[in-house]
Amino acid sequence: MGLFRRIGNLFHRSRLASDMDAELEAHIALRTEDNIAGGMTPREARRDALVRFGNPAVMKERTAGADMALGIDGLWRDVRYAVRQLRRSPGFALTAIVTLTVAIGANAVVFSILNALVLKPLDLPGARRLYMIEQRGFPMNSYPDYLDLRQRNHSFEDIAVYIIGEAAMNTGSNPSHVWMYQASGNYFDVLGVQPYLGRFFHSSDEHGLDAVPYIVLSYDYWRTRFHSDAAVVGRTVELNRHSYSILGVAPPKFHGSELMFVPDFWVPVVDTPLIAMDDDLKSRGDRSLEMIGRLKPQVTAAQATGELNAIAAALQKTYPKDDDGLQFALVQPGLMGNMLGGPIRAFVSGLMLLAGLILLAACANLGSLFSARAADRAREIAMRVALGSTRARILRQILTEALVIALFGGTAGIAASSVLLRGLSVWQPMPNFPIRVQVNPDVGTYTVAVLLALMSGLLCGLAPIRQIFGTAPWEVVKTGAAVTRRKRLPGLRDVLLIVQVAVCAVLMTSSLVAVRGLERSMHSNFGFQPDRALLVDTELRMAGYEGDRVAAMQRRMLDTAATVPGVQSAGLISNIPLGLGFSETAIFADGATDFRASNAVAEPVQYSVSPGYFQSAGTTLLAGRDITWHDGNNAPAVAVVNRTFAQKLFGSVDKAIGKHFLHDSGKQRFEVVGVVEDGKYITLTEETKPAFFQPLAQSPTSSTWLVARTAGDPQNNAAALRAAIHGLDDGLLFTLTTWHESLNSALFAARAAAVSLGVLGLLGSVLAITGIFGMASYSVSKRFKEMGIRIALGADRIQVLRSALGGALRLLAIGSVAGLLLGMAATRVLAFIVYQATPLDPVVLAGTVMVMLLVGLVATWAPAQRALHIHPSRLLREDW
To answer: Which pLDDT tens digit goes with each residue over 522-536?
Structure first.
């Protein structure tokens, strides 16, 4: 009954307060009557009763602690009082709220990215049992190996394969360039996905190569291209001039098994020969497919790996040339195995650590600010204690203020992070490639942000607990300064400040290193000259070109491009260096007879080029000759190699000319006819790699890039070149860009690192400023009267200022030096992401020093002004 009575009191708080007042007055009246009966006058009797009874407000507080209604009412009064106090100190309130907004917003953004890419990579049923199967560190496998693994293993419920590709889609109007998954028939079953409309294709639909002319649309593509038309199921469309029937539509938010790739549709992988006009699926040595499997419930990843490698050993014995060195490993899906997943997870985890340090620094800063505020309010606190208020009650009030600030800061941080995350989710860093980072905020993001806000509020509110419980009220009232009965724990707050200043210096050093590395990347020698160059990306099979028509059309494209005004030269290459596509292949010494992969002398990057490519690309020929139109199908196989290739195989550039090497298990014997300069082929941060270039006529491909070297600004010739290529065939799909624009993919990682570290560096600077400001403010507040007395006695104000702020400035110097040294060590990691990232750059060192000096100046300006404008007479008159 007592519990129900207390709950009922929640709805009758005014009546309850009146009852308490009446009850207290009754007790005082009874005591007064007893005193009068004892011989006191009514006035003395009343006074004695009040003294003996104690402070009524304290009695009400104690009663409120035992009653739910009065406790909530007291909490509400605390909140209103906290808001009034914060309104009286807008500078303090704004600084605290902005600090928490920055820290919580940064943690919410980074946690959402971590959650999307690392913690919960695939939002699919039973996603924890899904694993990518990669071999020798790459997620690429051959179709015959996939068939063997699927048939022989007993650890997986099923295994599927897929590859990302592009095609031309014609729905009855002009054809459009689209991106797709080419997936095995069991792909959707392995992932556990159900269609939104119609049905998916399955293994039962596969009846050999080129036998499954079906297509499944993504939800987004169905909504935008087909306007959410439910009658689209069964409709026929053309894909690379071949007819396909639409089976169904995938569910919303399902984008396949790669997190950052947003496809337009899915087609069966057995149709690859029809779409791509090749028979790579038949080759055991062609490793271009990604493999994903679902483990059985009682099987561990280690057990499955052991079984797969037992199968690999058997395949090596059966197919020693193609499967030599075959070894499988299971990795987390979603980011192309460890090839992209490893660096991305390490980078995002590092960002999460830095964001956590930023939040810790923010809490330390706010703790200093609350301690300084408690020092400023020492007289108020002492008076309240002297009048009978409990220290716990005062602490509760300060905690309420801290939680109110945490509420405002957390709300602002969540709002800011939501805007940033939604913008990041629709951002396409590579306009010509459907890459998106799906990091929309969810319940997990909001929950983490709220918990961090509450935790931050509690930590900040508890910071001045020693001042409150250690304050001697009679000393404060007598001297006007806070005197504690306990000794201060040495170094804790100082260490926290040094750590946050060091974190700021590390972030600033790293961001400056990333920016300088990015700047160097834009002006480095890549082995080609992107200035004054236009690129035309074509895929002739999308327009229905096959066989000899491909080479004829490519020759026409070159001849047409050469006639465009302003174009000096033109050439073709199968994949542009530093583009998204590349091909590495094993080569063998001339005369080799054992063609197992372990006997390869090198694995160079391989390109097919036309005559005129090196001139158009600005690649320097060091020795020998260029490729000519005489190097055709019926001519001996020749190659132009780079300097590293020549030195690795033949000892020097001069010795390489006229020498031979073997390729394709000895089926091709190449003569080296030229040597060109080294370059960057896959990533900007790669070590120098061997590469060779063979004639396009001897290694034909329908997918090429036309490189056109212009006399001036390439943008001035872009329209004319576009019109000329379009005039050859109005059904030909192509993309025209400058070579600088095409480097966006190669520079994406460096730019992302520079931006993210720059933002975190800015946040770290803001928090370092508030931390030093809090420490300096606390020092000035604690010694305010002492400094006033020293000034009154004739002390120089600069000496007083040095005494007040010297400690904070020393901590700034120590933290800056430590952070600079740590930053120089930490930025070595950036060398894997940013080209020529070095912390020993004088600009980086000078920039970091200047930033930290600016941080110190901004942080100590307000406390210094307060200390310099102390007026002793006013200070003593007000009895501060």
So the answer is: 667 788 998 899 999
